[in-house]
Amino acid sequence: MERKGSQKFAILLCKFSDSQDIEPQPATYFQDLFANRGTGGLNDYWSDASKGNIDLNGTEILGWKVIDQTRNDFVNARPGRWDKILGAIGAFDLDTSKYAGIVALFNVSVDDSGTQNGVLGGPTDYNVTFLGHETGHVFGLEHSFDQSDRKDATWSAPGEYFDMSDIMSAMNVYSSNPARFGPVGPLLNTPGMDRMGWLDPLRVWTPTNVGSSDSYQFDLVSLGHPEIPGYLAARIGGVYVEFRTKDGWDAAIPRPGVLLHEMPGVNPIVLASDKANYVNDWQPGQVYGPPDLDFALFGGTRIRVDNFDLPAKKARITVTRRASRPIVVGPGQIFGGVAVDGGGWVILPSGKIVPVPPRSPVTSILEKLAVVLEAEKALQPQAQKAVSRAVYGDVVRTLRTALKGSPHESQI
Fold first, then answer.
1. For residue 371, what are the domain limits?
2. In 3-state terms, what secondary structure has residue 10?
3. What pTM value is reported for the model?
4. What share of the chain is helix, strand, coil (3-state, %, to 5)?
5. Using CA atoms, how far apart are residues 114 and 117, in angstroms rounded to an integer?
6. Alpha carbon distance 170, 161 (integer Å)
7. 263 and 372, same domain (yes or no)
8. In this structure, what DSSP letter does residue 67 have?
9. Span 37-89, pLDDT tens digits
10. Is residue 74 part of a domain?
11. Tens of pLDDT along 343-392?
């Protein structure tokens, strides 16, 4: 899905026979909006969002062209978006093979806008946010999601359009509104950049020991400031980490924050720091990863946001990796289960049967332990040698805490 170099568009400006006196903007406006550099338009946006991997140099502005039909006749004869775009292409007798994409913009509303093999729009669509999103589709980018069940429209999927710091969730994003070409922003998220081949591997932090316990600390540079040396992103297993600051194309985000994403397919998903309140950014002191007991017993990876250095446009991140430990079945080893009353029991290597009170923090451990142990029964005897003494110690310590002051405390 890689896109590199110049992405030359044809911008078709179309008028109808019954509205040919209406030109919402002169052709020079669209030259600055799409083709020229240093104007705050689409060429600047995609050069920045792709970290210099693409530009819109060579884009041609054609029109205003009068289509020999009234607006109603044109719309009624062309119900679909691509039908309308084809109508514009036909009016210009255009060889589309010369272009990376076609943008058909009309002088009045055609009751539709968006992308279908090209971009279709009317007067309310002459802005960087809308056109950035739709040209992103032309490049091959797909919609981004959050983890919520919210729906932006009756026809959209749950969570679709709710990564509000990503251009591929427009029109439901944080965007600023300068006098010209507004609304504008935000940037493209890092999994989207990676899919397009725009995330420089030399600027992506990854852990060196993926299967061993270790701890790492590093800084992330704000995604909007690639001129600052350092890592622009981290990729830890299937999780992308990026830092956003409230400036440039991201000027409208509520506050500086770290964003975490997964990319299970072609649609990035932003990972919430507070699902109940739809908060998707991560602030200093917050940790992504398994809870304490799970981390101690079963290992995993934790990502901690340590602090922000806003003058330097950097976020300090700590990644802690704890390797998982095998649990096998055999004589004298730990075994446990969950009772019908919500409590449970553990057979210690000594042979003691220790009850666990209902709603104890140990019961969640027992549930996971029982699943793992059941799966391990299929192992060959020679693979069942190691006694998980570390797990035994953690379970005993947790049991002592849970049963402290109870009649069973002396059994541990």
1. 335-411
2. strand
3. 0.81
4. 30, 25, 45
5. 10
6. 6
7. no
8. E
9. 999 999 999 999 999 999 999 999 999 999 999 999 999 999 999 999 999 99
10. yes
11. 555 555 555 556 666 656 655 665 555 555 554 455 444 444 443 444 45
